[in-house]
Design goal:
The protein is α/β, with parallel strands linked by helices. It folds into two domains: 183 residues, NAD(P)-binding Rossmann-like Domain (Rossmann fold, 3-Layer(aba) Sandwich), CATH 3.40.50.720; 86 residues, Orthogonal Bundle (N-(1-d-carboxylethyl)-l-norvaline Dehydrogenase, domain 2). The protein has eleven helices and eight strands. The chain is globular, with a radius of gyration of 19 Å.
Length: 289
Amino acid sequence: MTDNAEISRVGVVGCGVMGAGLAEISAKAGLDVLVAVTSTTSEQAGRKRIERSLANAVAKGKLGEDERDSLLERITFTTDIGDFADRQLVVEAVTEHEPTKLKIFSQLDAVLEDDEAILATNTSSLSIMRIARATERPGQVIGTHFFNPVPVLPLVEVVGSLLTEQSAHDRLAAFLTDVLGKEVVRAPDRSGFVVNALLVPFLMAAMRMVESGFAAAADIDRGMTLGCAHPMGPLRLADLIGLDTLHAVATEMYEEHKEPLHAPPPLLARMVDGGLLGKKSGRGFYDYR
Ligand code: CAA
């Protein structure tokens, strides 16, 4: 593989909020997409996520119905990661849980036949180096941090570890811009990268305001949308990201930097314990049911 245009077979591991978005944009770019899921139930949920997002795109005139149908035909599902042997690029987008990611990377390493295949992780906060070391090919392992909703937001943070080969980095960055039409920023292999290093303290501060009774969620959100022109307020955004994901990201960032502003407030932990995960579970700081 010498050219980005030659990346035509993409694998996506996981079909949650982020994996579904990754599958959608890859298929939209004309690529053959294989999605690894853990069960037929997660396949059905993943398919539904993609179909809902595409229905939105069709309703907004961003996508024709024929284009939607052919896009969906380019996405297939498997419960066997062994089926990834011929993939040239794999993006892992499972929960922010290091042991799970390490296991997946070790499996991918054993399965991928192309020595130049790129193994990317959509982690928000875990060390790319530790993930890379789960494989025998750390030079090909790299972070690609997409933003939710993936089909709408243009940014990808590209995060190389100290062992990532420059050629893999450059090839992937060119693929993201030329093929997927994204904008790339280079970010350091430090928990939170660039965007979450700024965003997470803001979201945690908003939660602390709710927790202490300083202000109501709706007022905080109205303040930031109407007063600072943010597209959505911090608590609605937290619900969109997923409170479990945010809790994991903030915990990991706090662990690495020991910065109190990163620490997840107890309210966030209790909401996650209670299954109040935000939009995806129907209830978080707001009710979506
Ligand atoms: N494909 C292509 N375009 C699509 C689409 C799809 N599947 N679905 C929607 N769109 C387009 C729509 O057509 C619309 O485009 P126009 O503005 O040109 O009409 C645009 O996307 C917005 O979509 P909607 O109208 O459906 O939604 P909205 O206007 O209510 O905006 C939002 C919703 C995009 C979520 C917006 O509120 C927003 O940008 N919020 C902030 C999100 C954010 O900050 N995300 C980052 C989270 S951090 C993260 O993800 C990383 C982490 O590690 C925590």
